[in-house]
Amino acid sequence: MVAALFRILALIHKEMLAVLKDKRSRITLFAPVIAQSILFGYAATYDLSNIPYVVIDRDRSEASHALLAKLDGSGLFTRIATLDSVTALKHAIDTRKALIAVQIGEDFERRLRAGNAAPVQVIADGRNSNTAVTATLYLTQIANNFATAYDRKGATSNTHTIAIDYRYWYNPNAESRWHFVPGMIATLTMLQILLISAMSVAREREQGTFDQLLVTPFRPMEIMIGKAIPSILIGIVQATLVVVIALFWFHIPLAGSLAALYGALALYLLASIGLGLLLSSLAATMQQALLYTFLVLLPFILFSGLTTPISAMPRALQYLTLVDPLRYAIDAIDAIMLKGSTLSALLVDLWPLIPIGFFTLGLAAHLFRNRLS
Amino acid sequence: MRDAPELAARAQALGKGFKRTGGGIIRALDDISFDIRRGTLTALVGPDGAGKTTLLRLFAGLLRPDSGAALVDGIDAARDPAAVQAKISYMPQAFGLYGHLTVRENLQLYADLQSVDRATWPHRYAELLDATALVPFADRQAGQLSGGMKQKLGLACTLVRVPTLLLLDEPTVGVDPLSRRELWSIINHFVEADHLSVLIATSYLEEATRCDHAAILYGGRLLHQGTPEELTQMARDMTFLATPPAGEAPRLLQSRLLASAGILDAVPEGGLVRFLRDRQAAHPACLDQIDVRAVPPDFGDAFMVALHESGARNQPVPIPSGAALSGQAETVIEVRDLSRRFGSFIAVDHVSFSVRRGEIFGLLGPNGAGKTTTFRMLCGLLPASGGSLRVAGEDLRVARAQARARIGYVAQSFSLYGQLSVSENLSFYASAYGLRGQRKRQRIRTIIAEFGLEPMRDSLSGTLPGGFDKRLAMACALLHEPDILFLDEPTSGADPMTRREFWSRITALAARGVTIIVTTHFMEEAEFCDRVLIQDAGRMLAIGTPSELRMRVPEKPHGELVTMEEVFIAIVDEARNATRPAA
Q1: Domain identity same for A127 and A157
Q2: 1.10.3210, 3.30.70, 1.10.260, 3.40.1720: CATH of B232-309
Q3: Cα separations (Å) of B143 from A290, B96, B100, B538?
Q4: Within an 8 Å CB–CB cutoff, is residue B59 touching chain A?
Q5: What is the pLDDT along chain B (583 residues), one digit of tens a residue?
């Protein structure tokens, strides 16, 4: 046991030397993360469809039904429930079932006819601020078109308007960066970490050093651990760089604790590195490892919910997102930074990272030895 | 040169340097001049790193010299590379065959690339296929050919048209002796038929004797040139055969000789020791009471003389005294009916042997014979498809970690961490084998001294000069003092000095009781082994001591010694004929 520990320490030392000794490789590890997080923080636009929404219609009039029919018929919004209490509405937003909640006031039709501004309240989930802002923009447009075209017998005015009252929950000013930059912490780290770990075994295989390692007393699992830990350390440093940029460059508040943030990151890195090492043990060459990395990276980012809400995806794809470590990390980092969630509260959602990590690491260790050359 | 029409090409004071990673310049070539007469074969002889490939690339117009000129038909290859490239054909070491195309398609493709006249092509195609004996394989994919056949096809693709100058970069390296013999007869055929002028690089010294002119290249310098006969005369009156004391392995006398003053070289040969002595020197003391007779020199002897003149020296390795282990030592490796299949391909076919403690056991065979596969199964790197194997009493594939600590492994190609320094590599492998603290420091100190690595301590392992990388690889494998040492093609590409030094170390280790398993495609190195196993196409053809194997082939007239290469060819030929169905 002690012997194994010393072996693992030797391997960690060697891995760190191999990665950090060369000045160029130090730069390529850390410079792109800084540049990308600043660049991407400024650049974010979204296109949407099938935005899930809930509604509380207090008016239950012909006009309110007509407005909702317009929303449903637009193809942009999908009504997932018609509710009658604010509690139910809050629950729908909280659980991310709905991105938008629409409340129509009781005197909607009367005021619309009278030419007064008809009241509609729109509550959007501010955690996913880019999507929220875009969704409310669409909604406004549909409502205004509806009002302009509204022309009925008995109307006392020729001009009809709807007054929309916007509420962004969890991100009062709907700053897109508030959501996007925390997302970057996980996304940018994943790119580099997957690459480092996917290359690590493939490089040794290609350069012939892996055979040399396999004939030493190292056990496959020891090699795994010795390779995973340096990657986790590097991942933590990279993530810290993005966190620092988020806090001090973009002035995004940290509502939760740093301990919770790093706890979540550690779990996330474990799962990502497991996947990286699994890819690495599948690849025979560095080129293959690189290809595999990009093959999984793009779906991981798409399925993470960073750019498209997971609830808007087809059901089959939604199940697929369950194996995407990025999906958990983005939600958790968001919750910690913006809602101030604690790690223990998040473990309910984060636990799948642990089986993902151990399953991939174990499978990688098995494949090391049993993959035929 | 236009006034010298008998010349096909000429090197004029060629010099070329390369930037070394980490600063400094490597002089790859220094003031090289020689002529290539039309219709002749010129050999560039030297170990890896001598500058052979650089010289060929200068003639092909692929590199610009720093000084001097490479002229082909009077045209400077650096000034007008296109004109020169229209006149030459160049076969690089790794020739670019298309594995998924057939033999015919590959040839057709190269003919099209070289714009060979469509009218004459069918005739040339038939001639190439006939000369290379590839007619039955015309429709086979190139990727499915054996190593020797691939080289023959590469040569044929290089010869789709008749060039003014043919450049061949080590066409026979790694190819089995039978295919090498065939390749040479193909080359000779076309020199004759097309009046070709050829510049051929080789690290097999004896191949120089097949050429009209030879240039000995070492460390970027041209040491000597002339006809092979002239060069061989450099070693006249210097070569002797000594008979070792009864019951002693020739390699022990050989090691003592190498460590003696005035001895330029010594190798075991047919149970005797062939050595090269300075003309001025007397026989050293270790030859007292030993029967010595003079023998005629060969080209290899001349090469060693040239190396000594240039200042290269043997690295004497002290051999522990004391009797070699008795023949009753216990068995440490036991292999029974070992087989390995890859799909339908049988790489190793029912191989059985056993190795005793302190033995040097050689696995001999061409590339693709199955020796590396056998080797990898023994080390536990590859599972066997059938049969059983025991190394130090265990199957290393499933053995506890501690069992692996009893073996050392040196891979064929350099496989240490190139971006780490020499001492960092040693430190890592020491820890990997469980050495710590005082013991670890002491072992690293000892091994650095033993392998003369002190001056390279802090150099990056990937930038070590030739020879040092092999020493480091062996040093790393010996840090933990293993009982069994596995060496895969340890001498491939090394210069003769490095190879002697290497075998001296092996001899010293075996004398200490370490069991050595070694693969090699240098047949003459079988002489260093106690016993050898000859494999071909996965099958075990012969096993025994070098003398026992030699007895399987007919003796030559005049008591001339049968070389191990001839023994190998005879045994493989016999086996291949036996398996061929009667027509």
Answers
A1: yes
A2: 3.30.70
A3: 25, 11, 6, 19
A4: no
A5: 444 568 899 999 999 988 766 567 778 899 999 999 999 999 999 877 788 989 999 999 999 999 999 999 999 999 999 999 999 999 998 788 898 899 999 999 999 998 888 899 999 999 999 999 899 889 988 888 877 889 999 999 999 999 999 999 988 877 778 888 889 999 999 999 999 999 999 888 888 999 999 999 988 899 999 999 999 999 999 999 999 888 788 888 888 888 888 888 888 888 889 999 998 888 888 888 888 999 999 998 999 899 888 877 766 676 665 545 455 578 899 999 999 988 888 889 999 999 999 899 999 877 777 888 888 888 888 888 889 888 888 887 777 777 888 899 998 878 889 889 999 999 999 999 989 889 999 999 999 988 888 888 888 888 777 678 888 999 999 999 999 999 988 887 677 778 888 888 898 898 888 999 998 878 888 889 999 999 888 889 999 998 889 888 887 777 677 888 888 888 888 887 887 654 4
CB-based contact A215 B404, cutoff 8 Å: yes
Whether B480 contacts B225, CB under 8 Å = no
Contact A215 B407 (CB under 8 A): yes
User: Domain containing A98: what range?
Assistant: 51-169
Residues of A within 8 A of B379 (CB-CB) are 211, 215
Which chain B residues contact residue A286 at CB under 8 A? none
Per-window interface: B 338-377 vs A, CB < 8 A:
342, 376
B407 contact residues in A (CB cutoff 8 A): 215
Neighbours of B441 (CB within 10 A): 13
Q: With CB atoms and an 8 Å threshold, state whether B432 touches A22.
A: no
Q: If you search the block for the tokens 């929220």, which residue do you land on? A: A132
CA–CA separation, A272 vs A357, rounded Å? Answer: 7
* Nearest-angstrom CA–CA distance, A363 and B230: 64
d(Cα B567, Cα B76) in Å, to the nearest integer?
46
Contact between B382 and A212 using a beta-carbon 8 Å cutoff = no
Interface contact B404, partner A, CB < 8 A: yes
**What is the token pair recorded at A64?**
């309110």
* Superfamily designation of domain B7-221: P-loop containing nucleotide triphosphate hydrolases (3.40.50.300)
Whether A373 has its CB under 8 Å from any CB of chain B: the answer is yes
Question: Is some CB atom of chain B closer than 8 A to the CB atom of A21?
Answer: yes
Shortest distance between the Cα of B244 and any Cα of chain A, in A, equals 37
ipTM of the complex: 0.73
Q: Positive or negative, the Cα torsion across B528, B534, B536, B539?
A: negative
- Element (DSSP H or E) covering residue A206: helix A176-207
Residues of B in contact with A212 (CB under 8 A): 409, 411, 415-416, 476
